[in-house]
Amino acid sequence: MYWVCENCGETVQQDKQPDECWLCGCEMVEADECDGCGEVTFTGRLFGGYCEDCLRESINELTAERYLSERGFLVQFLCNYAWDVADISGGNERFKALCLNEFVNNYRTYHNQVEQFIMDDDGDDGKADYGKWYAKYRSQSRARREKENADG
After folding, report:
1. Which DSSP helix (H) or strand (E) runs through 132?
2. SS3 content of the chain, % helix, strand, coil (to 5)
3. What are phi and psi of 27, to 5 degrees?
4. 28, 36 contact by CB (below 8 A)
5. What are 73-112's pLDDT values in tens digits?
């Protein structure tokens, strides 16, 4: 188990909570290791097991498209960020397909806005939602690769 000092950031790994930080004497609190980069940080600063930096780095054309589509946010994103119109999320399947095509064909234009939409606009709730989705996505991708390697 990891512990980190609330004051100076010193990190220790041991089974029970230290009485105090050996560097500055302040309280040590529980910490976890990021599943992406391995950095030890305060437990509350991980989202689905990933630190904010790793989550931001994970946003690319594929993950953004899948996340926004699976969570039902693609039309909302395009309406709010790309077209500056009222959200028309109730559109039919053809409209949703056109939105997906627009997003995929113009992803480079939207990248910074996608990151802002996912990571910033909904605060820690948005980060937590994306973090849980991304952890599941990574787990499923690993399982698929392992199955393909075993079969092939």
Report:
1. helix 123-151
2. 55, 10, 35
3. -70, 140
4. no
5. 888 787 777 776 665 655 667 777 777 788 878 787 788 8
Cα separation, 85 vs 82, in Å, equals 9
Exposure of 59 in the CB half-sphere (CA atoms within 13 A): 23
User: Domains of the chain: which residue ranges?
Assistant: 2-33, 52-151
Three-state SS for 31-65 is: EEECCCCCCEEEHHHCECCECHHHHHHHCCHHHHH
DSSP state of 16: S
| Residue 115: closest CA among 83, 67, 46, 75 | 67
Closest CA to 36 of 148, 150, 146, 137: 137
Burial (Cβ within 10 Å: 0-12, 13-18, ≥19) of residue 31: buried
